[in-house]
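Researcher: We're teaching a course module on how sequence relates to structure. For the next exercise, students receive a sequence and then see the predicted structure as tokens, so they can try to spot secondary structure elements on their own. Here is the exercise chain.
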Amino acid sequence: MLLIRPKPQDGESMIGYLYRLTEENGYPSVSQVKHLIQADKRELERNLLNERSISRLGQYTGYNEIELVNMTSQDLRVLIHGHQYNQLILRQRVQYCPLCVQEMPVHRKSWCLSAINICPVHHIWLQSGCICGQIINLHSIIKGYCMYCETRMQQFSNENDPDKHLIDLQYELSRLFVTSSKKIHILSQEIGVAEFLAVVKHSLSLLHDIPSCISEGTQIRDLTSKGKHSYKSCLSYFEVIEMYRDFPNRFIRVLKEQKSKTPSAQTIAKYNFEKLLLDPTWHQLKQVYSNFMKDAKPNWNVRATPSMLNISSYQYLSKTAASHFLGVAKETVNKMARIGILHEKDIGFEKKVALDEIQRLLIKCKGDQKNCTGRISLRDIVQMYPKRGLDVTGIIKLVVDGVLQTASELTCDSLMNVTFDRSEIDYCFEVAFVCLSLRGENKMKNALLNEFQMRLASVTGQGIVFNGNVYTNVRMVSNQWFEAAEKNGEWFIPVLYKPENPDFLLLYDMDGLEVASAVDAHEEMDKEIVNAYLETINDLKDRIIKRKDS
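Model: And here is the predicted structure for the students to work with:
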């Protein structure tokens, strides 16, 4: 029951309102309120709430459902793809304006967005921490003071206020993401949220690791995904807007900066940016880019790869080019070739893949073209189920074999943006055995240890790190050690190793010893591993088909 029903405040976030309900009704945890309205945890992290939960919240509070929906970020979610929304929303960090909280301790909806870094009222940077050094959470914002030191929210005294130029840039982003306008001016035209996020995504591939034009002495980093970044990283949104000012002069300067990157980094930037130019909206940008590349090509270190702008003139693509065309890692393309999804052909001294086969695969995986709200993209699946036994290649194999049904938006240009029915994906990961990782074994019960040495290795978000190598192990993957390390920080474990054989480590276990294999030790899948992989996928196919038939 909710005996106290505080009125929603103008601009308040839904997640913040649920914390206020919790506080004012004396519940020890927001989990009770979430359970009461049957809220989905993953949706709430993104300031969303489904219709059923909105209806239940309306019944318990007596407030109009339209008013409650306005506290969510549904107005943005309906305009963009799921992966774009995840790029935009903050999920693992809370930011706030201390002066706003002093005036009224509520969490504002605009603070959920990674693109909003400056308070539009007080013109100061939004903060994530307290002066005591602790990270601020939603509970602290609702209380109005830090839960650790009990100090009232206040602005950092050593923080320089943003200048007028940055405030003006923030106003443009607020007009796009917060106001009803939902428009921004780029290259002499007004574009909406989805178009702008596409521009940001592809433009950052050029801007990454080059000098900032708004913060002297710093390099631009694209940390606008995962919801972990600080506001100094979020300035990448500002950098994109600035790159297209005084067009084409600044844009050409950015193109010239690409020469300082490694050849592989130039190739990646080239492919990612050229995907934007396939949209006829950006014909003016395409013309300037094409002219520059034509004149500057002899001076660039870009590897001999086809341009996305004339890729149809090539019969065969290298696996690097195929990976960029499909929007997946080269490792995934290699694996698809090994299990027969793609077929390699020796062209000169390189194994290549036919362009028409790549195009057919992309069309097959896109499925029906429709509004994909409520579905889950392959990109989100990778984030939600990291190292849980079914990889990108396995999911694509299930699509190619007709086991999983897909759909995509009209603008889909990558396998990672293809969407699936959530219940089908949940079931897949329910029955998929963690052995699909194929990177560790439990076969060392009676190992001879005479030739091994003992050392400490660190468990990190990437794997077990030792002597510059990264190792992984099936049981650790299934128990989510690496996810825990990424979230809580690394820790150390004892390992046994042979200096002359860096391909594996031995780990202590209650039942004996386990192997941890080097991540790149099985870069080329031998026949036995390919057969084991296909056998597991086929078993999963049979289970899914039987479930559908029952």
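Model: If you want an answer key for the exercise: The chain is about 40% helix and 10% strand. The chain has a mean pLDDT of 82.
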